[in-house]
Amino acid sequence: MFEPVLLSSYAKSIMRPSNPAVQAAVDSYRAALLNDPKNAPSRRQVAEENGIAEATLSRRLNGINKAHKASHTHLQKLSTPQEEVLVDFIYRHTMMGVAITREVIIDAAEKIR
Hints:
Distance between the termini: 10 Å
Number of domains: 2
Mean pLDDT: 81
Largest sheet: none
Number of strands: 0
Strand content: under 5%
Helix content: 55-70%
């Protein structure tokens, strides 16, 4: 029924990772290892540069802790792409001035599934 559309900037803005500093540290550390493994900074240095605890960075890199959104995906009724379609549906209707009720959202979500 609903076709996937490109997400609006608003929809993208509300789907940020729960802690951008942790994700930035993970990305920075992995990039440094790929570029020059022998001269890559330590986990402690990367954690300090990004203002997070070294233990947090180590757990995320070792796969012990995951981002909140990633660790709770099994509890969601909609997959991430389906959720993005629903958010865009709500956003487009709101921009057109159409009042969106809870029932309309539930109906749309059921049709997307």
